[in-house]
Protein backbone atom coordinates (compact mmCIF):
# COMPACT_ATOMS: atom_id res chain seq x y z
CA UNK A 1 0.00 0.00 0.00
CA UNK A 2 1.20 3.51 -0.75
CA UNK A 3 2.12 5.74 2.19
CA UNK A 4 0.48 8.72 0.51
CA UNK A 5 -3.26 8.55 1.13
CA UNK A 6 -5.19 8.14 -2.11
CA UNK A 7 -8.91 8.20 -2.64
CA UNK A 8 -10.09 5.39 -4.87
CA UNK A 9 -13.85 5.01 -5.12
CA UNK A 10 -13.86 1.58 -3.57
CA UNK A 11 -11.47 -0.50 -1.47
CA UNK A 12 -12.33 -4.20 -1.46
CA UNK A 13 -10.93 -6.22 1.44
CA UNK A 14 -10.45 -9.77 0.20
CA UNK A 15 -9.14 -11.12 -3.10
CA UNK A 16 -11.07 -14.39 -3.26
CA UNK A 17 -13.89 -15.05 -5.74
CA UNK A 18 -16.36 -12.82 -3.89
CA UNK A 19 -14.03 -9.82 -3.49
CA UNK A 20 -12.65 -10.13 -7.02
CA UNK A 21 -16.05 -10.61 -8.66
CA UNK A 22 -17.23 -7.46 -6.87
CA UNK A 23 -14.10 -5.55 -7.89
CA UNK A 24 -14.39 -6.57 -11.52
CA UNK A 25 -18.10 -5.71 -11.74
CA UNK A 26 -17.50 -2.35 -10.03
CA UNK A 27 -14.71 -1.60 -12.51
CA UNK A 28 -17.09 -2.43 -15.36
CA UNK A 29 -19.55 0.00 -13.79
CA UNK A 30 -16.90 2.73 -13.94
CA UNK A 31 -15.62 2.74 -10.35
CA UNK A 32 -11.98 2.97 -9.38
CA UNK A 33 -11.13 -0.11 -7.32
CA UNK A 34 -8.29 -1.34 -5.13
CA UNK A 35 -8.37 -4.93 -3.87
CA UNK A 36 -6.45 -5.72 -0.69
CA UNK A 37 -5.79 -9.40 -0.13
CA UNK A 38 -3.94 -11.02 2.78
CA UNK A 39 -3.30 -14.13 0.61
CA UNK A 40 -4.38 -16.49 3.37
CA UNK A 41 -3.26 -20.06 2.49
CA UNK A 42 -6.47 -21.50 3.93
CA UNK A 43 -8.87 -19.24 2.01
CA UNK A 44 -11.83 -21.49 1.16
CA UNK A 45 -11.52 -21.09 -2.62
CA UNK A 46 -8.02 -22.61 -2.70
CA UNK A 47 -9.40 -26.05 -1.82
CA UNK A 48 -12.99 -25.55 -2.90
CA UNK A 49 -14.41 -28.23 -5.15
CA UNK A 50 -16.29 -25.64 -7.21
CA UNK A 51 -19.65 -27.36 -7.20
CA UNK A 52 -22.52 -25.24 -8.49
CA UNK A 53 -25.32 -27.20 -6.93
CA UNK A 54 -28.39 -25.76 -5.26
CA UNK A 55 -29.64 -29.37 -4.92
CA UNK A 56 -26.62 -30.77 -3.05
CA UNK A 57 -26.33 -27.78 -0.72
CA UNK A 58 -30.07 -27.26 -0.06
CA UNK A 59 -31.08 -27.64 3.56
CA UNK A 60 -34.27 -27.59 5.60
CA UNK A 61 -35.42 -24.07 6.50
CA UNK A 62 -33.30 -22.41 3.80
CA UNK A 63 -35.89 -21.75 1.12
CA UNK A 64 -34.73 -18.20 0.44
CA UNK A 65 -31.13 -19.31 0.11
CA UNK A 66 -32.11 -22.05 -2.34
CA UNK A 67 -34.05 -19.50 -4.41
CA UNK A 68 -30.95 -17.34 -4.55
CA UNK A 69 -28.75 -20.33 -5.39
CA UNK A 70 -31.11 -21.39 -8.20
CA UNK A 71 -31.01 -17.91 -9.72
CA UNK A 72 -27.23 -17.86 -9.33
CA UNK A 73 -26.90 -21.14 -11.22
CA UNK A 74 -29.22 -19.92 -13.98
CA UNK A 75 -27.07 -16.81 -14.43
CA UNK A 76 -23.70 -18.59 -14.28
CA UNK A 77 -23.23 -19.30 -18.02
CA UNK A 78 -23.60 -15.59 -18.88
CA UNK A 79 -21.08 -14.69 -16.17
CA UNK A 80 -18.64 -17.34 -17.45
CA UNK A 81 -18.95 -16.14 -21.04
CA UNK A 82 -18.29 -12.52 -20.07
CA UNK A 83 -15.38 -13.38 -17.76
CA UNK A 84 -13.70 -15.80 -20.15
CA UNK A 85 -13.94 -13.22 -22.94
CA UNK A 86 -12.42 -10.45 -20.80
CA UNK A 87 -9.72 -12.57 -19.19
CA UNK A 88 -9.01 -14.63 -22.34
CA UNK A 89 -8.84 -17.84 -20.30
CA UNK A 90 -11.18 -20.76 -19.54
CA UNK A 91 -12.49 -21.43 -16.04
CA UNK A 92 -13.65 -25.04 -16.41
CA UNK A 93 -17.42 -24.51 -16.33
CA UNK A 94 -19.21 -27.80 -17.10
CA UNK A 95 -22.88 -28.66 -16.76
CA UNK A 96 -22.37 -32.23 -15.57
CA UNK A 97 -25.39 -32.77 -13.29
CA UNK A 98 -25.25 -34.17 -9.77
CA UNK A 99 -26.25 -37.48 -8.25
CA UNK A 100 -26.90 -37.77 -4.49
CA UNK A 101 -26.98 -41.43 -3.48
CA UNK A 102 -28.01 -43.61 -0.54
CA UNK A 103 -25.51 -46.29 0.51
CA UNK A 104 -27.66 -48.13 3.09
CA UNK A 105 -31.24 -48.35 4.41
CA UNK A 106 -30.87 -45.42 6.81
CA UNK A 107 -29.51 -43.21 4.07
CA UNK A 108 -32.29 -44.40 1.75
CA UNK A 109 -34.97 -43.14 4.13
CA UNK A 110 -33.20 -39.79 4.53
CA UNK A 111 -32.77 -39.53 0.74
CA UNK A 112 -36.51 -40.12 0.18
CA UNK A 113 -37.32 -37.24 2.55
CA UNK A 114 -34.73 -35.09 0.86
CA UNK A 115 -36.28 -35.77 -2.53
CA UNK A 116 -39.65 -34.48 -1.25
CA UNK A 117 -37.93 -31.37 0.09
CA UNK A 118 -36.08 -30.65 -3.16
CA UNK A 119 -39.00 -31.33 -5.49
CA UNK A 120 -42.07 -30.21 -3.59
CA UNK A 121 -40.91 -27.55 -1.14
CA UNK A 122 -38.00 -26.11 -3.14
CA UNK A 123 -39.27 -26.89 -6.67
CA UNK A 124 -35.87 -27.96 -7.95
CA UNK A 125 -35.61 -29.93 -11.16
CA UNK A 126 -34.68 -33.36 -9.73
CA UNK A 127 -35.48 -36.98 -10.61
CA UNK A 128 -35.51 -40.15 -8.50
CA UNK A 129 -33.28 -42.98 -9.86
CA UNK A 130 -33.16 -46.62 -8.76
CA UNK A 131 -29.75 -48.09 -7.82
CA UNK A 132 -29.33 -49.78 -11.21
CA UNK A 133 -30.18 -46.54 -13.01
CA UNK A 134 -27.58 -44.69 -10.91
CA UNK A 135 -24.89 -47.20 -11.91
CA UNK A 136 -25.89 -47.02 -15.57
CA UNK A 137 -25.21 -43.29 -15.48
CA UNK A 138 -22.11 -43.59 -13.29
CA UNK A 139 -20.44 -47.03 -13.52
CA UNK A 140 -17.87 -46.12 -10.83
CA UNK A 141 -20.62 -46.23 -8.17
CA UNK A 142 -20.70 -49.16 -5.77
CA UNK A 143 -23.34 -51.93 -6.24
CA UNK A 144 -24.48 -51.04 -2.71
CA UNK A 145 -26.00 -47.77 -4.03
CA UNK A 146 -29.73 -48.17 -3.36
CA UNK A 147 -31.11 -45.07 -5.08
CA UNK A 148 -30.20 -41.54 -6.08
CA UNK A 149 -31.46 -38.03 -6.76
CA UNK A 150 -30.39 -36.68 -10.14
CA UNK A 151 -30.18 -32.89 -10.57
CA UNK A 152 -29.37 -32.40 -14.30
CA UNK A 153 -28.83 -28.62 -14.12
CA UNK A 154 -26.02 -28.78 -11.56
CA UNK A 155 -22.61 -27.74 -12.78
CA UNK A 156 -19.04 -27.20 -11.73
CA UNK A 157 -16.28 -24.68 -12.25
CA UNK A 158 -12.58 -24.70 -11.37
CA UNK A 159 -12.21 -22.27 -8.42
CA UNK A 160 -8.47 -21.73 -8.94
CA UNK A 161 -9.02 -20.96 -12.63
CA UNK A 162 -11.94 -18.71 -11.66
CA UNK A 163 -9.77 -16.65 -9.30
CA UNK A 164 -6.96 -16.43 -11.88
CA UNK A 165 -9.43 -15.20 -14.51
CA UNK A 166 -11.00 -12.66 -12.14
CA UNK A 167 -7.54 -11.32 -11.26
CA UNK A 168 -6.71 -10.96 -14.94
CA UNK A 169 -10.04 -9.31 -15.78
CA UNK A 170 -9.66 -6.95 -12.82
CA UNK A 171 -6.17 -5.94 -13.96
CA UNK A 172 -7.30 -5.46 -17.55
CA UNK A 173 -10.01 -3.08 -16.32
CA UNK A 174 -7.40 -1.04 -14.43
CA UNK A 175 -8.07 -2.40 -10.94
CA UNK A 176 -5.23 -2.48 -8.42
CA UNK A 177 -4.48 -5.77 -6.67
CA UNK A 178 -2.39 -5.43 -3.56
CA UNK A 179 -1.10 -7.86 -0.99
CA UNK A 180 -2.06 -6.38 2.39
CA UNK A 181 -3.54 -7.61 5.64
CA UNK A 182 -6.17 -5.09 6.73
CA UNK A 183 -6.27 -4.73 10.52
CA UNK A 184 -8.99 -2.14 10.97
CA UNK A 185 -11.21 0.39 9.24
CA UNK A 186 -10.50 4.13 9.25
CA UNK A 187 -13.40 6.20 10.59
CA UNK A 188 -14.33 9.90 10.54
CA UNK A 189 -17.59 11.48 11.68
CA UNK A 190 -19.27 8.09 12.16
CA UNK A 191 -18.40 7.02 8.61
CA UNK A 192 -15.96 4.44 7.31
CA UNK A 193 -13.48 6.35 5.16
CA UNK A 194 -10.87 3.72 4.41
CA UNK A 195 -8.79 0.83 5.66
CA UNK A 196 -5.69 0.51 7.83
CA UNK A 197 -2.93 -2.01 7.34
CA UNK A 198 -0.09 -1.62 9.84
CA UNK A 199 0.91 2.04 9.83
CA UNK A 200 -0.67 2.71 6.46
CA UNK A 201 -4.09 4.04 5.57
CA UNK A 202 -5.90 3.81 2.26
CA UNK A 203 -8.83 6.20 1.94
CA UNK A 204 -11.89 5.09 0.02
CA UNK A 205 -15.38 6.40 -0.65
CA UNK A 206 -16.76 2.92 0.00
CA UNK A 207 -15.15 -0.07 1.69
CA UNK A 208 -16.37 -3.56 0.77
CA UNK A 209 -15.55 -6.20 3.36
CA UNK A 210 -15.24 -9.52 1.54
CA UNK A 211 -12.54 -11.12 3.66
CA UNK A 212 -14.13 -14.57 3.87
CA UNK A 213 -13.57 -16.40 7.15
CA UNK A 214 -11.40 -13.51 8.36
CA UNK A 215 -14.17 -10.91 8.03
CA UNK A 216 -14.84 -11.05 11.77
CA UNK A 217 -11.18 -10.49 12.70
CA UNK A 218 -10.98 -6.99 11.22
CA UNK A 219 -11.68 -4.27 13.77
CA UNK A 220 -14.77 -2.54 12.44
CA UNK A 221 -17.59 -0.42 13.88
CA UNK A 222 -19.84 -3.48 13.70
CA UNK A 223 -18.68 -6.81 15.05
CA UNK A 224 -19.54 -9.37 12.39
CA UNK A 225 -20.85 -12.79 13.44
CA UNK A 226 -18.59 -14.70 11.03
CA UNK A 227 -16.59 -17.74 12.08
CA UNK A 228 -14.39 -20.23 10.19
CA UNK A 229 -15.84 -23.71 9.63
CA UNK A 230 -12.93 -25.97 8.78
CA UNK A 231 -13.14 -28.31 5.80
CA UNK A 232 -10.54 -30.94 4.96
CA UNK A 233 -10.52 -32.07 1.34
CA UNK A 234 -8.45 -34.57 -0.64
CA UNK A 235 -7.29 -34.53 -4.25
CA UNK A 236 -6.66 -37.85 -5.95
CA UNK A 237 -5.40 -38.96 -9.34
CA UNK A 238 -7.46 -41.61 -11.06
CA UNK A 239 -7.49 -43.54 -14.33
CA UNK A 240 -11.27 -43.54 -14.71
CA UNK A 241 -12.97 -40.30 -13.70
CA UNK A 242 -16.53 -39.81 -12.48
CA UNK A 243 -18.57 -37.89 -15.02
CA UNK A 244 -21.04 -36.28 -12.57
CA UNK A 245 -20.94 -34.62 -9.16
CA UNK A 246 -21.44 -37.55 -6.77
CA UNK A 247 -22.60 -37.13 -3.21
CA UNK A 248 -23.52 -39.39 -0.33
CA UNK A 249 -24.72 -38.30 3.10
CA UNK A 250 -21.11 -37.72 4.23
CA UNK A 251 -18.90 -36.89 1.23
CA UNK A 252 -18.83 -35.66 -2.33
CA UNK A 253 -16.61 -36.86 -5.18
CA UNK A 254 -16.02 -35.30 -8.55
CA UNK A 255 -13.48 -34.59 -11.20
CA UNK A 256 -11.62 -31.36 -11.75
CA UNK A 257 -10.94 -30.07 -15.24
CA UNK A 258 -7.26 -30.77 -14.43
CA UNK A 259 -8.11 -34.50 -14.42
CA UNK A 260 -7.86 -34.87 -10.64
CA UNK A 261 -10.69 -36.02 -8.39
CA UNK A 262 -11.80 -34.06 -5.35
CA UNK A 263 -13.07 -35.92 -2.27
CA UNK A 264 -14.58 -33.63 0.36
CA UNK A 265 -15.17 -32.41 2.86
CA UNK A 266 -15.15 -32.51 6.63
CA UNK A 267 -17.20 -29.94 8.55
CA UNK A 268 -15.37 -28.99 11.75
CA UNK A 269 -15.77 -26.30 14.39
CA UNK A 270 -12.06 -25.90 15.15
CA UNK A 271 -11.56 -22.15 14.75
CA UNK A 272 -8.54 -21.31 12.60
CA UNK A 273 -6.86 -24.72 13.11
CA UNK A 274 -5.26 -25.47 9.74
CA UNK A 275 -4.04 -29.01 10.44
CA UNK A 276 -4.85 -31.72 7.90
CA UNK A 277 -5.41 -34.70 10.20
CA UNK A 278 -5.21 -38.49 9.78
CA UNK A 279 -8.71 -38.68 11.26
CA UNK A 280 -10.11 -36.26 8.69
CA UNK A 281 -8.47 -38.16 5.82
CA UNK A 282 -9.76 -41.48 7.23
CA UNK A 283 -13.31 -40.15 7.54
CA UNK A 284 -13.31 -38.97 3.91
CA UNK A 285 -11.74 -42.11 2.48
CA UNK A 286 -13.93 -44.48 4.50
CA UNK A 287 -17.15 -43.04 3.07
CA UNK A 288 -15.58 -42.28 -0.32
CA UNK A 289 -14.62 -45.94 -0.75
CA UNK A 290 -18.12 -47.08 0.20
CA UNK A 291 -19.48 -44.95 -2.62
CA UNK A 292 -16.70 -45.50 -5.23
CA UNK A 293 -14.75 -48.72 -4.43
CA UNK A 294 -12.25 -48.14 -7.27
CA UNK A 295 -10.93 -45.21 -5.24
CA UNK A 296 -8.68 -47.61 -3.29
CA UNK A 297 -6.37 -47.72 -6.34
CA UNK A 298 -6.23 -43.97 -6.87
CA UNK A 299 -3.17 -41.86 -5.97
CA UNK A 300 -3.47 -39.45 -3.08
CA UNK A 301 -2.16 -36.13 -4.44
CA UNK A 302 -3.05 -33.48 -1.85
CA UNK A 303 -4.73 -33.03 1.53
CA UNK A 304 -5.92 -29.46 1.98
CA UNK A 305 -7.73 -27.37 4.55
CA UNK A 306 -10.00 -24.41 3.94
CA UNK A 307 -12.10 -22.22 6.20
CA UNK A 308 -15.72 -21.71 5.16
CA UNK A 309 -16.84 -18.22 6.19
CA UNK A 310 -19.97 -18.83 8.20
CA UNK A 311 -22.71 -16.86 9.98
CA UNK A 312 -24.85 -18.44 12.73
CA UNK A 313 -27.65 -19.29 10.25
CA UNK A 314 -25.23 -20.49 7.51
CA UNK A 315 -26.53 -17.80 5.13
CA UNK A 316 -24.55 -14.96 3.55
CA UNK A 317 -24.24 -11.43 4.90
CA UNK A 318 -24.65 -8.91 2.08
CA UNK A 319 -25.45 -5.24 2.59
CA UNK A 320 -24.43 -1.92 4.07
CA UNK A 321 -23.73 -2.19 7.79
CA UNK A 322 -22.40 1.28 8.51
CA UNK A 323 -22.09 4.46 6.44
CA UNK A 324 -19.38 3.78 3.87
CA UNK A 325 -19.11 0.05 4.71
CA UNK A 326 -20.65 -2.79 2.68
CA UNK A 327 -20.19 -6.44 3.69
CA UNK A 328 -20.23 -9.42 1.34
CA UNK A 329 -19.20 -12.47 3.30
CA UNK A 330 -20.35 -15.61 5.17
CA UNK A 331 -21.16 -17.54 1.99
CA UNK A 332 -20.39 -20.76 3.92
CA UNK A 333 -20.71 -23.68 1.42
CA UNK A 334 -21.84 -21.57 -1.55
CA UNK A 335 -19.14 -18.98 -2.18
CA UNK A 336 -18.25 -20.06 -5.70
CA UNK A 337 -21.89 -20.36 -6.77
CA UNK A 338 -22.96 -17.05 -5.24
CA UNK A 339 -19.95 -14.93 -6.26
CA UNK A 340 -21.47 -13.48 -9.48
CA UNK A 341 -24.87 -12.81 -7.87
CA UNK A 342 -23.24 -11.20 -4.84
CA UNK A 343 -21.16 -8.99 -7.12
CA UNK A 344 -24.28 -7.85 -9.03
CA UNK A 345 -26.00 -7.06 -5.75
CA UNK A 346 -23.07 -5.04 -4.39
CA UNK A 347 -22.81 -3.05 -7.63
CA UNK A 348 -26.53 -2.26 -7.39
CA UNK A 349 -26.07 -1.21 -3.77
CA UNK A 350 -23.04 1.01 -4.45
CA UNK A 351 -24.61 2.58 -7.53
CA UNK A 352 -28.29 2.83 -6.56
CA UNK A 353 -28.38 2.31 -2.78
CA UNK A 354 -30.56 -0.79 -2.91
CA UNK A 355 -30.26 -4.56 -3.12
CA UNK A 356 -32.11 -6.85 -5.56
CA UNK A 357 -35.21 -8.43 -3.93
CA UNK A 358 -33.68 -11.94 -3.88
CA UNK A 359 -30.67 -10.70 -1.91
CA UNK A 360 -32.59 -8.47 0.52
CA UNK A 361 -33.23 -11.31 3.05
CA UNK A 362 -29.47 -11.65 3.53
CA UNK A 363 -28.62 -8.22 4.90
CA UNK A 364 -26.85 -8.18 8.29
CA UNK A 365 -29.98 -6.41 9.59
CA UNK A 366 -31.41 -9.83 10.38
CA UNK A 367 -29.06 -9.87 13.37
CA UNK A 368 -29.98 -6.46 14.70
CA UNK A 369 -31.90 -6.79 17.92
CA UNK A 370 -35.68 -6.50 17.58
CA UNK A 371 -35.68 -4.78 20.95
CA UNK A 372 -33.18 -2.19 19.89
CA UNK A 373 -34.97 1.18 20.06
CA UNK A 374 -32.43 2.66 17.64
CA UNK A 375 -32.41 -0.33 15.30
CA UNK A 376 -31.08 1.40 12.20
CA UNK A 377 -28.10 2.96 13.86
CA UNK A 378 -27.25 0.19 16.30
CA UNK A 379 -23.66 -0.93 15.94
CA UNK A 380 -24.29 -4.18 17.82
CA UNK A 381 -25.59 -7.27 16.13
CA UNK A 382 -27.69 -9.55 18.28
CA UNK A 383 -25.88 -12.85 17.82
CA UNK A 384 -24.59 -15.55 20.09
CA UNK A 385 -21.52 -14.18 21.86
CA UNK A 386 -18.83 -15.68 19.68
CA UNK A 387 -16.28 -12.92 20.21
CA UNK A 388 -13.76 -12.18 17.51
CA UNK A 389 -12.28 -15.39 16.11
CA UNK A 390 -8.58 -15.52 16.87
CA UNK A 391 -6.34 -15.20 13.84
CA UNK A 392 -3.42 -17.62 13.78
N1 LIG B 1 -19.47 -26.60 -0.99
C1 LIG B 1 -18.77 -27.71 -0.48
C2 LIG B 1 -18.23 -27.55 0.87
O1 LIG B 1 -18.35 -26.52 1.48
O2 LIG B 1 -17.67 -28.49 1.36
From TrEMBL:
Q: Where is the composition biased (Basic and acidic residues)?
A: 365-379
Write out the entry's keywords from A to Z.
Oxidoreductase, Thiamine biosynthesis
Q: In which pathway does it act?
A: Cofactor biosynthesis; thiamine diphosphate biosynthesis
- Highest taxon of the lineage: Bacteria
**Oxidoreductase listed as a keyword:** yes
Q: What EC number(s) has UniProt assigned to this enzyme?
A: 1.4.3.19
Q: Which GO terms describe its biological process?
A: thiamine biosynthetic process; thiamine diphosphate biosynthetic process
Its name, as the record gives it, is glycine oxidase
